[in-house]
Specification:
InterPro entries: Amidohydrolase, Bact_exopeptidase_dim_dom, Peptidase_M20, Peptidase_M20_dimer. It holds the Pfam family M20_dimer. It comes from Brevundimonas intermedia. Keywords: Hydrolase. This is N-acyl-L-amino acid amidohydrolase. By secondary structure, this protein is of the alpha+beta class. Helices cover 33% and strands 27% of the residues. It contains nine helices and 18 strands. The strands form five sheets. It has an eight-stranded mixed β-sheet, sandwiched between helices. A hairpin with a 2-residue loop joins strand 4 and strand 5. Helix 1 packs antiparallel against helix 3. It is elongated, with a radius of gyration of 23 Å. The two termini are 22 Å apart.
Length: 406
């Protein structure tokens, strides 16, 4: 297996760089899907395309019957202007919310696709030694449902039968993040936060900027709403029990410096690890924002839409996986008890249907302190290609060892 991983590594690097130069936004990953499907077919796998719009599923049947396990990678890029300086940096554009925007693999999904393609090639080469079935899931739109779409990639693939025929008993996935190259880390139970998008629309009364008392000032209301959200989160949630982040990230209002507008729109994100606590905070926020708006004579519309559920790593599988990942990464390189993180992942929806574990690969550039390396979604995010063979190996060993379980 080690020799097979080494043989496929140059191809994995080439695939990664090709995907990086040709990034595609969620549900527009047509080129990426075609490259993946062609490769899986060349390996003799059963291939389904168009699952969840652009998703691809490959099924590898071993020489003998046995268990069924799934491995997953995501495919979409982000509306980000790349600033890595790489020779193969993206110059692509796409359409987002009706606008032409730069597009880049600023989250590492190019790495994920390439590693899972490499794992498929290694496992296909071992087909005669395998008892059981491996399902390879290449998922679109992990970054959330594009505007106008009711579901993101994982939820839509599940709705369209991604986990049926054959039905996996478990699913595993990985993500490159800042961290020491060669390190692997995760935790049982709540690992990555549930993510909600929050939208607030304030309605007031337009007036001259010199006569604010003759209108209803939504700018003042918006300022109070932001303070209210920050205070509610800091003063009504026990930070020792579960991390909670509630951020207002956009505020759009007005067209001229001396006109107080009649409306303002705000949006933000809520990250939580406890369903009951999340529901209580949402209820308090909606009530408080209504009261703030009413105090000024304005009105408020408050909406919440879930982008990703809590990434909940199955406790039993998490314990079982630690020595498997150590076999791949080497002693001292696996931490199965890392703190939770407030970033989100829609891998969580697969875990709501079947048990699964999601883990992270440290991929900071050589010689760079992981705490100082560019984070995911940054224009400078540039994961270390030296971790590509490790990602292939963790996929392969996770599948093989699971199929060998008694």
């Amino acid at each position: 297996m080690d020799a097979a991983v080494q043989r496929v590594t140059p191809q994995v690097v080439d695939w990664r760089r090709d995907f990086h130069q040709h990034p595609e936004l969620g549900f527009a990953e047509t080129r990426s899907a075609a490259v993946i499907a062609e490769h899986l077919r060349s390996l003799g796998l059963e291939v389904r395309t168009g699952v969840g719009k652009t998703g691809v599923i490959g099924v590898l049947h071993g020489a003998r019957p046995g268990r069924v396990v799934a491995l997953r990678a995501d495919m979409d890029a982000l509306p980000v202007q790349e600033a890595t300086g790489l020779d193969f940096a993206s110059t692509a554009t796409g359409t987002y919310m009706g606008n032409t925007v730069p597009v880049a693999h600023a989250c590492g999904h190019d790495m994920h696709m390439a590693m899972l393609m490499g794992a498929a090639q290694v496992l296909a080469g071992m087909k005669d030694q395998i008892a059981g079935t491996v399902v390879f899931i290449f998922q679109p739109a992990e970054e959330g449902a594009p505007p106008g779409e009711p579901k993101g990639g994982a939820a839509l693939m599940i709705a369209e039968g991604a986990l049926n025929d054959p039905k996996p008993e478990a699913i595993f996935g990985l993500h490159v993040v800042p961290g020491r190259p060669g390190s692997v880390f995760y935790r049982p139970e709540g690992f990555m936060a549930a993510s909600d998008r929050v939208d607030i629309v304030l309605k007031g009364k337009q007036t001259h900027g010199a006569w604010p008392w003759r209108g209803v000032d939504v700018i003042a209301v918006a300022g109070q709403v932001i303070e209210t959200v920050n205070t509610l989160t800091a003063r009504t949630v026990d930070p020792t029990t579960t991390p909670t982040v509630f951020t207002i990230a956009t505020l759009n209002a007005g067209v001229r410096y001396n006109i107080i507008p009649d409306s303002a729109t705000l949006s933000g994100t809520l990250r939580t690890f406890d369903v009951a606590q999340r529901d209580a905070l949402v209820a308090r926020a909606e009530t408080a924002i209504d009261h703030v708006a009413a105090a000024y004579g304005a009105t408020a519309e408050f909406g919440v839409k879930q982008n990703a559920a809590l990434v909940f790593n199955d406790p039993g599988l998490s314990v079982w996986l630690a020595p498997v990942l150590t076999e791949a990464a080497g002693p001292g390189n696996v931490n199965p008890a890392t703190p939770p993180t407030t970033v989100a992942e829609d891998f969580s929806y697969f875990q709501q249907v079947i048990p699964g574990v999601f883990y992270h690969l440290g991929a900071s550039p050589d010689g760079v302190d992981p705490s100082q390396s560019a984070p995911n979604h940054s224009p400078e995010f540039s994961p270390n290609e030296k971790v590509l063979p490790l990602g292939v190996k963790t996929h392969v060993l996770t599948a093989l060892r699971f199929l060998e379980r008694s």
